Amino acid sequence: MPGRALDGAAGSGRLAVVNEPPQEPPEEAQDARDAREARQPQPPDGAPQPAPPRLRDYAEALIIAVIFAIFVRTFVVQAFKIPTGSMEDNLLVGDHILVNKFLYAPTASRLEEWLLPVRDVRRGDVVVFKYPDDPSRDFIKRCVGVPGDEVELVDKRLYVNGAQVDDASYTLHSDPRVYSRSSYLPPSYSRRDNFGPYLVPADSYFCLGDNRDNSRDSRFWRHTTVPREYLKGRALMIYWSFDPEQAERGTGNPWERLRRFIASTRGDRTFKLVR
User: Fold this and answer.
1) Is there a contact between 200 and 146 (Cβ–Cβ < 8 Å)?
2) What is the full DSSP assignment across 70-87?
3) Which residues contact 215 (CB under 8 A, 6 or more apart)?
4) Spatial distance between the Cα atoms of 3 and 17, rounded to a whole number of angstroms
5) Interval 38-63: pLDDT, tens
6) Distance from CA of residue 145 to its chain's centroid?
7) Residue 7's pLDDT band (boundaries 50, 70, 90)?
8) What predicted TM-score, i.e. pTM, was given to this entire model?
9) Which residues contact 126 (CB under 8 A, 6 or more apart)?
10) What domains can you pick out in the chain, each with its CATH number?
11) 13 against 230, higher pLDDT
12) Is 54 helix (H, G, I), strand (E, B) or coil?
């Protein structure tokens, strides 16, 4: 029945009368709405209409996300792919790694060094840098000598400041042969197993590949060391890895390629920290 509602007391069975506000006639209500709309400012003829709020919000969020991604890639972290075996068995061909670009960032004061998570390059860091002989290319090696260090290789053994380095946990020697310093051998052989002693200059770093018998590094470059300004960051972790040789086997059928691509993923290397 009009004007009636159930009482709030459950189960009482009583009815209560509710006074409703008087309703305006339909014609008068419509005239009132038209008058309110007429009082609102209207854009001049031909003026561009404002974008719908929802579309504008999406555009703002997208722009902010792009700016944030560019900032992160430039100053914080960047992804790289390992194309060669010079860092085996620590890093394999097909490993995709994240590099911490903030760690070696320059600071203006001791206070910034204390507050920010930055530090100098240390011996043993796996670093990404611009190739000293061709800065348009990026290389990844292990830093074994910092400014002021004396680096020497004697029959494949690494010495820094006269002390032998215990690098057996990460160094690979795939060739059992040891080449001497003979002047009759080309540099690719004579410098591979015996090099130096070499004094690392200021603001520079001496870098070697973990796969010592199959790496082009500070032993062979025209510019022996990596300048500090060429450093891009420290290798942080492997976020994905796959075997490119396995992925390329078989037919060109799209489903078969997808199956091989999934099968070639090295799950045991995913999210592995680079040491």
Assistant:
1) yes
2) HHIIIIIEEEEE--SSTT
3) 86, 87, 141, 208, 209
4) 6
5) 555 555 655 556 555 677 766 777 77
6) 25
7) very low
8) 0.70
9) 87, 90, 91, 140, 141, 142, 143, 234, 235, 274, 275
10) 79-273 (2.10.109.10)
11) 230
12) helix
Residue 104: both structure tokens together: 């070696």
Distance of alpha carbon 221 from alpha carbon 198, whole angstroms: 13
Per-residue model confidence as pLDDT tens digits over 169-191: 999 999 999 998 877 888 888 89
Closest CA to 193 of 175, 168, 167: 175
Active site residues: 86, 141
Is the peptide bond between 197 and the residue preceding it cis, with omega within 30 degrees of 0? Answer: yes
User: What does the mean pLDDT of the chain come to?
Assistant: 80
Consecutive H or E run containing 127: strand 126-131
Q: Tokens 């082009």 label which residue?
A: 216
Tokens matching residue 193: 């197993």
Question: Which pLDDT score is estimated for 12?
Answer: 42
CA-wise closest residue to 101 among 80, 85, 124, 122: 80
Burial class of residue 254 (count of CB atoms within 10 Å of its CB; 0-12, 13-18, 19+): exposed
For 192, phi then psi, to 5°, come to: -65, -45
Residue 176 token pair = 């059992």
Which amino acid type is present at position 21? P
